[in-house]
Each structure stands twice: as structure tokens, then as C-alpha cells.
Amino acid sequence: MPRLEKIVRFLDEYLKTDDVKDSSWNGLQFEGRGTVKKAAFAVDAGVESFKMSVEEKADLVIVHHGHFWDFRNPSITGWAKQRMKILFENDISLYVSHNPLDRHKEVGHNAELLKLLGAKITGEFFLYHGKNIGWIGECKKALPLKEIEEKLNRELNTVCRVLPFGGKKIRTIAVCSGGGSYGGFYNALDAGVDLYITGDAVEVYHTAKDAGVNVIFAGHHATETMGLRALARILQKKFHIETVFIDLPTGL
């Protein structure tokens, strides 16, 4: 079985963990047993995902939204103790990749969403502390907006909210998974794309309408599953370990 430290070193290098600023403490947040036979992947750290990782007999849990963040007290008390106790008692490690997994050009959430729609990455559009966290892609053949909506609903197990204010045929797409917020929208608008896809809905209805641009809000959770699935395939192939994706949809 591969050593935990070897997998962590690979993840840090492959995901370029230290290349972008983040409010998340990316990397190994909790150290469990020294070897890894099976890794569980989930969008969020939490009691439910940790308990399911125990049931799956996982040695390592890899998540997008980890436990430790800059904006909260790191003390392990109350609910935090109950959560982390599961990892401690079962000797399970926790690895976290937030912005690095959003922006990764090969297995990142945004890159995978563009691949899903048959679009090839052509450029950047949304900088965070000087580093790109979103991608613009171009489809070889223009796709109907409705077809894109239906594919996202089906493949991401979500229900998209659509602002259909641009052309009905889509060739250029800007994607910022999760919480693209107003910054993502206005950067996509300035980039002149046919469609902007993100997770969280923000109040841009009238601006999108006046500007004549299409927007799809596909859900924060749903848009941040594909990168984890892609990363699982990479680890499985490289280290010959078992992997499992724990899907706990939030409806958000």
C-alpha cells in the first residue's frame, strides 16, 4: 500500500496547492494512518461524510470544503470536536483542496464542466489575488442553450436556474464553479461570452437581460463534484488504490 506522505506530496505538487491564496487551509488537515488502501472523496467535510468514509473503510478522505478556514476559530470544541473525533478514533486522514481544485486546468471543477459540454479551454477570465480561478471554453459546434441546461441537470443531478437573455446557440462559455458571485458574472460579461455558468445564484437578472447574456446557476454543490471525481481517477491509476465518491447533495 502507498504511504500517506507520498500521496500527499503528489497531491500538493499536482494541484499546485501553494500557488493560489485561499481562505481554506489546503493540504493535509488531519493525519491518520501512514498507509492508504482506499480513499473517499466528498464535496464537504462533515459528520455525515466522515461516518460514510468509515463505513467505506477509507483510510483517507479528500474534500473540496475542508474543516479549517481563515475566518473561523480553529479550536476543536463542541460540534467541531464531534466531527473531528470521527477521524481521530478511526485513524482517517483528511486532505483538502479548495481554490487549487477549482482552477486546475486538467482535473479542476471548471475544466471538467467545460469537458462535459465538449468545450476546449481557450483562456482565463476571473482572477483572484492575481491567479485565474475560472476558465473560458469554446465549443467546436454551437450548442442550443436548452441542450446545455438539460445536460447539466442530468449529469450533475441538479436543477439549473437559467437567465436566457442571450443567443440560443452557445459557442463560448465562461465557468466558475461554486460561488462565482458578482465578480465572476461581471468578468464573464466583460469577456463577451455567450454563456456564464456558476453555482450560486446572485441578483444579476436585469443586468444580464440588459446586456443580452445567458447565465446558468447550476448549484454550488453540483458544480463542485466533477473535479473530485476526476481526481479520484488520477489517484486510482497512479497509486493503484480503491476510491469511492460520497455524494451528499445539499440542494444548494
Provide a descriptive summary of the structure in words.
The chain is of the alpha/beta class. It folds into 2 domains: 4-98 and 225-245, NIF3 (NGG1p interacting factor 3)-like (Udp-n-acetylmuramoylalanyl-d-glutamate--2,6- Diaminopimelate Ligase, Chain: A, domain 1), CATH 3.40.1390.30; 102-223, NIF3 (NGG1p interacting factor 3)-like (Udp-n-acetylmuramoylalanyl-d-glutamate--2,6- Diaminopimelate Ligase, Chain: A, domain 1, 3-Layer(aba) Sandwich). It is built from 9 helices and 13 strands. The strands form 3 sheets. The chain has a 6-stranded mixed beta sheet with strand order 5-8-10-11-12-9, sandwiched between helices. Strands 1-4-3-2-13 form a 5-stranded mixed beta sheet, sandwiched between helices. Strands 6-7 form a two-stranded antiparallel ribbon. Helix 2 (47-55) links the parallel strand 2 (38-44) and strand 3 (60-65). The longest helix is centred in the C-terminal third of the chain and has 14 residues, at 226-239. It starts with a helix and ends in a 7-residue tail after the last strand. The model has no long low-confidence stretch (mean pLDDT 97).
Integer average pLDDT: 97
Distance between the termini: 37 Å
Q: How much β-strand is present in the residues?
A: 25-35%
Task: Profile the largest sheet.
Answer: 6 strands, mixed
CATH superfamily of the largest domain: NIF3 (NGG1p interacting factor 3)-like
Low-confidence stretches: none
CATH topology of the largest domain: Udp-n-acetylmuramoylalanyl-d-glutamate--2,6- Diaminopimelate Ligase, Chain: A, domain 1
**Number of discrete helical segments:** 9
Q: Report helical residue fraction.
A: 25-40%
